[in-house]
Amino acid sequence: MAPVTQRQIQKFHEDGFLVLERFFSAEECDSMRSQMRRIVAEMEVPPHCRTAFSTREEEQLRAQGSSDYFLTSGDKIRFFFEKGVLDEKALHAYDPVFKQITHSPKVQELGRKLGLERPVVVQSMYIFKQPGIGGEVTPHQDATFLHTEPLGRILGFWIALEDATQENGCLWFIPGSHTNGITRRMVRAASGASTCVEFVGSEPAYDDKQFIPLPISKGGLILIHGEVVHKSELNSSESSRHAFTFHVMEAKGTTWSKENWLQPTPELPFPSLYT
Questions:
Q1: CA neighbours within 13 Å on the CB side: how many for 50?
Q2: Is the pTM of this model over 0.90?
Q3: Could you give the C-alpha distances from 23 to 110, 131, 166, 229, in angstroms and in order?
Q4: I need a labelling partner for 222 at 20 to 30 A (CA). Which of 2, 5, 132, 174 fits?
């Protein structure tokens, strides 16, 4: 892995994303995939808990809106089915392989180069985008689901465990869109409501011509600003597109919204990235 330069850091602040090829080794990627195969082999998800995560408002409310399994997933390893894409959460806290990757020295060094002083890890996911059935993720901003005051304190680390191509569903971004604030929030609904989450505001209709694809090789890392607009398409290929992703919040001078669906617990406060 080549050292990250100040020009690259500047590019991230300009675009809202940054591609870092070969950030992780093939061996590190293979260890995560092997560990996930072991977890899947041992994990049984009860049928009534097979909820789905979606960036589409109506699908999210229908599939998970009344699910305690979803709201209480922040301090547990749990599985979610996203239109053909199985994902699993809280790996950074409970699995030694993924915890080691999340808190690896090179991730910590990158955090310091980005100027993060008190970064904490708020969530992690392993995403299975399977051949032929891996679903699309519609245009969205991560801060819709992970809101902070002030904005601009959420950062995503997206690790390609296999080559991500346009055919198997790589990420697409609108460069510079992180400078326009957010238009929508997913919040916990009031007690007694028919769903346990609701959306405030609305997602605008984005021009597809504004998006650019970011194919990336196995082991590559994409940094994602919390307000940059991004998406991924259906996996129409015969190749899977596995990825491990986690989100970090700069905790210094930042308030985590009590309306967020995800909340720290006494059992799992948000751990420091630098520990």
A1: 10
A2: no
A3: 10, 25, 20, 23
A4: 132
